[in-house]
Amino acid sequence: MEYRAGFPCRWSVTGADGQGWYPAGAVRALDAHLRPYFHGDDVEVVVPAEPLTVSVTRGMEYGTATVQVTPAPGEVQTVELTPERIYDAAARGWYGGDLHVHLNWMGDAPATPDRAAAAQLGEDLHVLNLVAGNVAGERVYDRELLEEWAGRDLPWSDGRHVARVGVEYRNDLLGHVTAFGLAGTPTHFHSGFGLSADAHPDSTPLTELRGLGGITGYGHPFHTDLSDTDPPERTVAAGRNCSAREIVVDAALGLIDGLDVLDEQTAGMNGQPGVTVGHEASVRCRFDTFTTSEASPLIKSLC
Q1: Least enclosed by CB within 10 Å: which of 10, 97, 117, 231?
Q2: Domain coverage including residue 27
């Protein structure tokens, strides 16, 4: 079967038992509800001759269109299906972006830039920041991609979509930050890993990242379960977990542009904006997306 929407979208083709069907070579991706999906337009999928449900959507600004089809054996059938647009955020002055996406960091399927491109265009995500960073050791994933593309838009960028390679600087004691729009490659990627000591405060790499033109922000500031009534010491009670312990100081120094106030650890909390009271820092939501995980879709957030 061939599937067409007129522009890149997110498709789901499933049988009565929930089995998903994908284009040849596509990653067998699942969304947060474990529904099979793939991105693209004018794509061909080999499917069984049985009743199938075809759904198509595209980011937060579109609804979902669904149709039931039963392909005939040996025939090529075309499904033309376009999701309805609910609203146009850009026309209202709002742009969707994800400034914290790992191309290769963890997961079960090493990713190439093509997969990130398909996801960004398929979700109509205006801005994408693929961050080079480490995990639990000193190896920096996607550092070579950053060195090649720092200061330049990635090839699939167009008049509506911008994709860049940025950095996630990590220190599990003081917190970790991301930077978007770097003009060059920084010298600091992490500290406190392997044989490396916690040699300096986060303000040191932040100063370098700002000097390279980066837009900076702290990721998931409270990396533990919290409630609005928990005392302040509860936020730092879980040891080295990359909670943003230095954020107030760095906000006072004017070194951060944003703070992720909504994530999977802190959804429902109301008190986080208070940590930068008196200092300018935009509020953001983030998903810390991993394109290498089959169950980690790229989702559009307004920022």
Answers
A1: 231
A2: 2-80
Residues 31 and 95 in one domain: no
Is residue 303 included in any domain, yes or no?
A: no
Asked if residue 79 lies in contact with residue 93, where contact means CB atoms within 8 angstroms, the answer is no
Domain presence at residue 85: no
The secondary structure of residue 190, as a DSSP letter, is B
Q: Coil, strand, or helix at residue 119?
A: helix
Question: What's the total number of domains in the chain?
Answer: 2
| Token digits of residue 257 | 């542009």
Judge whether 193 and 165 are in contact, CB under 8 Å: no
Spatial contact of 177 and 168, defined as CB atoms under 8 Å apart: yes
Residue 298 lies in a domain: no
End residue of a domain, out of 52, 80, 108 = 80
Query: What angle is formed at CA 138 by the lines to CA 132 and CA 140, rounded to 5 degrees?
Result: 15
Same domain, 71 and 151: no
Report how far residue 135's alpha carbon sits from residue 293's, in angstroms, rounded to the nearest whole number: 15
> pTM, whole model, 2 decimals?
0.86
CA distances from residue 128 to 32, 76, 95, 162 in whole angstroms, order as listed: 20, 36, 11, 6
Q: What is the CATH number of the domain that holds 242?
A: 3.20.20.140
User: In b/e form, how buried is each residue of 50-64, taking b as 16+ CB within 10 angstroms?
Assistant: eebebbbbbbbbbee
Digitized pLDDT (tens) for each residue of the chain, 303 residues in all? 999 999 999 999 999 999 999 999 998 999 888 999 999 999 999 999 999 999 999 999 999 999 999 999 999 999 999 999 999 999 999 998 888 899 988 767 788 999 999 999 999 999 999 999 998 899 999 999 999 999 999 999 999 999 999 999 999 889 999 999 999 999 999 999 988 889 899 999 999 999 999 999 988 777 666 677 878 777 666 677 788 888 889 988 999 988 776 555 554 444 444 454 455 556 555 555 545 444 444 444 333
